């Protein structure tokens, strides 16, 4: 399992990954654990998922090895659009806070911006020197997007014109594998191939602190709502919860998976979900 995401109303979880029957996206009932739907359309592994909208009207978005991004009606589970401009696997998708812009990251060395309503691209592709395999996130305020890639860089872009803002953010030579922004936009957390978690100041682009405990790549990081905790998932099979102020590990979980590819808090933060 490569990806896991909660629905806006907290009643369902969507998972994405490998499949032998082209059922790469599955929908589950949170309370019962029962399968609600198999979504067919992709022809390759699904790496990423995002849920857009409100509890009564929402869209699920998925990105895949088959180079496509697919949009699904979360009431009927029918496919409503297919975005096909990427020329390699799609590794990350993210919706802007206003729900109007979709960001995607791909192994074709680019990130792209899309109009959610009509599926049309916005501006030119955002270019990196290597695969943008790890992340794309919208920064609060609605005018900036951040990408990270295997060229060891994090980049901030202007949403309106697609131009890079400032210089690359860098710290060391380890590929960045995952990123997440705090809700207030003051900090970004990143997970790297060397097992290090870095906390960045979004105003300066500088590292505030580093946390080390994992022993392998960190493909997933996320914040809780008040910005005081961070979750990390690692290919060493562990999930850890960190205190942002002290850098101490609040909770460590050996999940039973060989790899943890995705971690997320439930919307009410009473549970966490992991995918591996």
- Largest sheet, order of strands side by side? 1-2-3-4
- Shape by Cα distribution: globular
What's the CATH C level of the domain at 1-84? Answer: Mainly Beta
Please write the string of helix (H) and strand (E) elements: EEEEEEEEEEEEEEEEEEEEEEEEEE
Q: In percent, how helical is the residue content?
A: under 10%
Tell me, rounded to a whole number, the average pLDDT: 89
Pfam families: WD40
WD repeats: 39-82, 83-124, 140-167, 169-210, 211-252
Organism: Rhizopogon vinicolor AM-OR11-026
Protein name: WD40 repeat-like protein
What does this molecule look like?
Helices cover 0% and strands 53% of the residues. With 276 residues, it is mainly β. The chain has a domain of 84 residues: Thrombin, subunit H, CATH 2.40.10. The strands form seven sheets. It has a four-stranded antiparallel β-sheet, with no helix packed on it. Strands 5-6-7-8 form a four-stranded antiparallel β-sheet, with no helix packed on it. It has a four-stranded antiparallel β-sheet with strand order 9-10-11-12, with no helix packed on it. InterPro entries: WD40/YVTN_repeat-like_dom_sf, WD40_PAC1, WD40_repeat_CS, WD40_repeat_dom_sf, WD40_rpt.
